[in-house]
Amino acid sequence: MEVTNLHWRKSSYSSGNGGACVEVASLTGGLAVRDSKNPAGPMLRFTSDEWHTFVRSLKGAELTSE
């Protein structure tokens, strides 16, 4: 899959947090996520279903930090 010409975006809430944010880009059938401080670095790819499950778990506070 070609991923060199993606339109990356980040939340408007990300300003002022010291650069600790991620960027997302739409892919056919899903999306890609990368560290905004390292745009040439690795990215994670998620299907639409995987991403929606992740977001639902965040909204439901099912994930915890250890």
TrEMBL record:
InterPro entries assigned to the protein according to its UniProt record, in alphabetical order: DUF397
Superkingdom, natural source: Bacteria
DUF397 domain mapped to chain residues: 6-59
Protein name: DUF397 domain-containing protein
